C-alpha cells in the first residue's frame, strides 16, 4: 500500500491512498478519521485555547470570542493569524466582523474549503 502524506505540525493530510487494509498500530482507523478532518472543532478548540489561554473544554461552537472567551482585539488578530497558518489560507480583514463565535469561524473555514 502506498500513500502520500503531507505533514503539518503534529497533523497530517492523506493526499492519496490506494486502499486501507491491515492498518498498522500507528495508524488506527479512528486516527484516520481525525487526520481527514472529522474533528475540525477539536483542532480549532486547541488553537483557541492556546491563543486565548482558556480551557478547551469550555469552548463550544456557540462561544463568542469577546464575551464568552474574553478576547481583546490583539488576541483576536493573533488567533486569526494562527488559523491562517494552520489552514494555509488568508482571512481578509473585511471578513473579520462576521466572525463573532467559534461556530462562525468553523462555517467560514468550511466555506473556504477547509475540512
TrEMBL record:
<keyword id="KW-0275">Fatty acid biosynthesis</keyword>
<keyword id="KW-0596">Phosphopantetheine</keyword>
<comment type="function">
    <text>Carrier of the growing fatty acid chain in fatty acid biosynthesis.</text>
</comment>
<dbReference type="GO" id="GO:0009245">
    <property type="term" value="P:lipid A biosynthetic process"/>
</dbReference>
<dbReference type="GO" id="GO:0000035">
    <property type="term" value="F:acyl binding"/>
</dbReference>
<dbReference type="GO" id="GO:0005829">
    <property type="term" value="C:cytosol"/>
</dbReference>
<keyword id="KW-0444">Lipid biosynthesis</keyword>
<comment type="pathway">
    <text>Lipid metabolism; fatty acid biosynthesis.</text>
</comment>
<keyword id="KW-0597">Phosphoprotein</keyword>
<feature type="modified residue" description="O-(pantetheine 4'-phosphoryl)serine">
    <location>
        <position position="73"/>
    </location>
</feature>
<dbReference type="GO" id="GO:0000036">
    <property type="term" value="F:acyl carrier activity"/>
</dbReference>
<protein>
    <recommendedName>
        <fullName>Acyl carrier protein</fullName>
    </recommendedName>
</protein>
<comment type="similarity">
    <text>Belongs to the acyl carrier protein (ACP) family.</text>
</comment>
<dbReference type="InterPro" id="IPR036736">
    <property type="entry name" value="ACP-like_sf"/>
</dbReference>
<dbReference type="GO" id="GO:0016020">
    <property type="term" value="C:membrane"/>
</dbReference>
<keyword id="KW-0276">Fatty acid metabolism</keyword>
<feature type="domain" description="Carrier">
    <location>
        <begin position="38"/>
        <end position="113"/>
    </location>
</feature>
<keyword id="KW-0443">Lipid metabolism</keyword>
<dbReference type="Pfam" id="PF00550">
    <property type="entry name" value="PP-binding"/>
</dbReference>
<dbReference type="InterPro" id="IPR003231">
    <property type="entry name" value="ACP"/>
</dbReference>
<keyword id="KW-0963">Cytoplasm</keyword>
<dbReference type="InterPro" id="IPR009081">
    <property type="entry name" value="PP-bd_ACP"/>
</dbReference>
Amino acid at each position: 500500500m502506498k500513500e502520500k502524506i503531507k505533514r503539518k505540525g503534529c497533523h497530517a493530510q492523506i493526499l492519496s491512498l490506494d486502499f486501507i487494509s491491515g492498518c498498522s498500530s500507528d495508524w488506527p482507523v479512528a486516527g484516520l478519521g481525525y487526520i481527514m478532518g472529522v474533528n475540525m472543532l477539536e483542532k480549532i478548540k486547541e488553537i483557541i485555547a492556546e491563543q486565548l489561554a482558556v480551557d478547551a473544554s469550555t469552548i463550544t461552537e456557540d462561544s463568542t470570542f469577546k464575551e464568552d472567551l474574553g478576547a481583546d482585539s490583539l488576541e483576536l488578530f493573533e488567533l486569526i493569524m494562527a488559523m491562517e497558518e494552520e489552514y494555509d489560507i488568508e482571512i481578509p480583514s473585511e471578513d473579520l466582523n462576521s466572525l463573532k463565535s467559534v461556530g462562525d469561524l468553523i462555517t467560514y473555514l468550511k466555506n473556504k474549503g477547509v475540512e
